[in-house]
Amino acid sequence: MKRIIMSIAIVAFTITATQAQENKNVQETSTVKKVTQKDVNVKTQVIKDTDTDMQVIEVEGTTVQDQDSKVITSNSKDSKVVADNVTVDVGNQQQMMAIKQKQEAELARKIAEQNEAAAMQAEMERKAKMMQQQQELEARRAALMKRPEGMAKLQKN
Q1: What is the model's pTM?
Q2: DSSP letter at 40?
Q3: Contacting residues for 46 by C-beta, under 8 A, at least 6 apart
Q4: Who has the most CB within 10 Å: 16, 83, 96, 111?
Q5: Band of the pLDDT at 58, cuts 50, 70, 90?
Q6: What tens digit of pLDDT does each residue of 1-39 get?
Q7: For the chain, how big is the Rg over CA atoms in Å?
Q8: Distance between CA 46 and CA 30 in Å, rounded?
């Protein structure tokens, strides 16, 4: 019985001795970003970026002194969206509507001013043309009324 227990213990120690030893070192860095875009709709995204550096040190065998060890380093970057919300900003929406209405009123006022100025310009041009025609008419009338010497003047009836 003693021999069986001793042989089982020796087998167990030799199995663990022949297997490689492994030491893991994991460093994880998480960064949470909150991105907000404001407009009428407020879009909020919470993004979690995770950088993981994992180092595994493997040692071959345990019975040898000054063992060779291998260091295996792996880096992984992970990015996932934790929250994604879209909400309506009523106050901002009302402000934007007020600004839009103000701009439309200003545009309508400027259009009316331009139309009025164009009408005044057209009226001034019409008056200038009438004055010119009146002057031409007076010049023609004067030319027609002028009689050579010795000819009788025209009578107005």
Answers
A1: 0.40
A2: S
A3: 32, 33, 34, 35, 81, 82, 83, 84
A4: 96
A5: confident
A6: 778 887 887 777 666 555 556 667 777 777 777 777 777
A7: 51
A8: 13
